[in-house]
Predict the 3D structure of the following.
Amino acid sequence: MAQSPYIVTVTAANFEAVVIDGSFDRPVLVDFWADWCAPCKGLMPVLAKLADAYAGKFILAKVNTEEEQALAAHFGIRNLPTVQLFKSGQVVDQFMGALPEGQVREFLDRHLPQPGDGLLAQAQDLMAAGDLKRAAVLIEQAQAQDPSNARVALARVQLTAAQGDLSGAAALLERLPIELAQDPEVAALRGQLRFAQALVGAPAPVDLTRRLAADPNDSEAAYLLAAHRVLAGDFEGALEGLLALMKRDRTYGDDAARKGMVAVFDLLGGQGELVTRFRARMMTVLY
């Protein structure tokens, strides 16, 4: 049988190119296996069948852990088989053990493009442009075309927030399908709603700045000013303000400054220079 074009044997020499760089083009499913592992051999034909069945929607990368021990150690592989899914250079999900085909399909479908994704992407653009009516129409079309797509529910949360119903959006957010529980976009949206809700009825930034000038210990003004900065996209300024508040007043709003910093980290995807720098500074305050 000819080697599938969707299955690649990966070593330390080509891991960067195939898995890390390749996952920016399409998801890469990495199967960590060993020749002595019976469950690995049971899972292999299932993964190979699905790689061909999905016809290039993902690449299956196979790592022989006996020959590539350094790779296995780097990714913390302790049980075989372990299967990790990479997207945009990062591990986004994994499973261990020889799952049946149906469960592997469910695992893949949580991360692979779905039929309604194109409509949802258009709806996102319309929401960004302020055209909420047309965005709502496209979200309903996506629901009709692709009723099993969990991201339709996420789009509804975003639309509800854009319409100004923040409490309604927060309620919908808590009822999202379980498969979205660890989605970075959900974490980011939760952070946005946190700050938007805090600013309902809040003074303008110029007034908060005046309050702080008159009383540097005005914790409410400091927090609300940081919230304004978050929604304006000034994440560094917001983090500086929240860190200063955290140092001065951990009791304000049930540790609101620390929780606010964590929410900003989520908004930034949990990675990047800004997150690394401020997470380290936050740790020095905590410990």
In short: The chain is about 55% helix and 10% strand. Residues 117-178 form one domain.
